[in-house]
Structures
1.
Amino acid sequence: MKSSPSEGLLDLVEQLKSKSNLVILTGAGVSAESGIPTFRDAQEGLWSEYNPEDLASPAGFRKNPKLVFDWYAWRRSVVLKSLPNMTHQILADWTNKFPNLTLITQNVDGLHQSAGSKGVIEMHGNIHRLVCCNKRHPSPWIDGNGEVPRCEKCNSLLRPDIVWFGEMLNNGVMSEINKALKQCDLFIAIGTSGVVYPAAGFLEKVKVSGAFTAIINKEKFPFGTADVQLEGLSSQILSVLNDKI
Ligand code: OAD
């Protein structure tokens, strides 16, 4: 690992210029500068007494579907008011610049796509959809009475199309990710605390096969050790990198 930040940055620039199979993993930190609270930020106002990990779970939904639904409706209302920031925009440019870039996000806000990124792998789903009986419902998210809407087919409550704690990722999504990780020669994790599996295991996985690894995060990295670790706001670090490649 490089000892000085500028040395690490230049090293990553060289890697970006020379490697061809990039995998970029993003987390809630990349959307923080768009005004969307990260998952592990303190919950605000009405929601401060709840633990997000209890709300984002099948058990939480079974216990109190309306509470979970309202929490997601609140998060979605924040997302609807937000715009992609510099990090989303630069990564969208990179999807053109690097033809073999795979962008994997743990975020459910859709901001990478709004910025123009194509082929984004949304490993935890998307907050704008509801799901039941293997069918995705883009709307209405809330029914006319403010109640949790029901599935037309089985009459169960519709749920957000999000992978909750304790649930498995969709097989197709996981095999697409594994394929990209296998071929990857440069892996960059941006704005993620790296505590939720399987994403938390990607860095170690690609290291085993010899990929160069980098972490960009606002604070010290709980996410294992990478070849380059850059501490700061993702928009600022990506802007500097982008100017040099
Ligand atoms: P977290 O909230 O756990 O972590 C966000 C990370 O981003 C933290 O380490 C922050 O320090 C960092 N950060 C904040 N602002 C930043 C900025 N401007 N630039 C760079 N870094 C910044 O979010 P995730 O790691 O995405 O899953 O959480 C992973 C998953 O946990 C989420 O997808 C969610 C949750 O369970 C589900 O809902 C299924």
2.
Amino acid sequence: MQILDGKEVSSYKKEEIKRETEKFFKDTGRRPHLVAILVGNDGASETYVNSKMKNCKYVGFESSTVRYEEDIREEELLSKIREINKDENVDGLIVQLPLPKHIDPEKVTETIDYRKDVDGFHPINLGRMQRNLPSFIPATPYGIIMMLEHYGIDTQGKKAVVVGRSNIVGSPISILLARNAQPGNCTVTLTHSRTKNIEEEIKRADIIIAAIGKKHFVKEEMVKEGAIVIDVGINREKSDKTKSGYKLYGDVDFERVAPKSDWITPVPGGVGLMTIIALLRNTLDAAKKAVYQK
Ligand code: NDP
């Protein structure tokens, strides 16, 4: 069993992005700028946005957070997005999910200029990704691809089973793994809550991508000997044993599954760290496009 180590890959990639950012600054006199919009006071969202901003600072980006109260009107949020779309000093714009129920996330996503959509959720980016054309790839799936690439894992011809079909993780990673590319060229099965005999599907997988949001959903008996296991899940539970007051668990029962697998990602220390790297990479690419492809 070997660990797909998010700490190792993310720190390697972060230094690479930092060096490229300094060169970009020397060449153009400008720094990539990421804006995050945060609505409400969700603790997890606050942590994610803070971490994204801290990482932006580390690699030499400019970054800013626009905060709104939970009860902001949808139109006010959309109009702020339109304003940022026009701002030439901003390269990337993300709106942290989840949003309050009265705001339609689809409208929000489609209002973001696809050239600044560094989360890669805009239908234009998703369509381009599906066609294997240059696009911003959603951060978590992109992070997984970077990790597989970094460790030189050959995915060709393998059977990949993706558990969960969300627009931000499950669906895009299934498209990426099925593409004629390396990593890619897998035979992909996309499963969800209506899938029959899901245990049997998972048991046949050479590569398992678990993106469900249920602690330890993937158990030892569902995993084939020698499988590659990518755990996307982040399930928070209160704990009085940690400084933060909570503990994170993946969608995979790591302790029992790890000995059976060839490669596995831990939680924390796996996919989550790569998601931030992918966001940084997309933002730097957006800045380069804005300058060099005017
Ligand atoms: P969603 O809640 O949007 O989607 C969950 C998916 O899992 C749905 O497709 C759902 O099926 C499926 N599902 C739920 N229960 C079952 C079940 N019993 N059997 C089979 N499928 C099931 O989740 P996300 O994709 O947004 O997130 C998944 C997990 O990944 C969460 O823990 C989240 O915190 C984490 N995450 C981690 C990131 C990272 O950076 N590491 C980034 C993003 C998310 P259906 O469609 O039928 O309802």
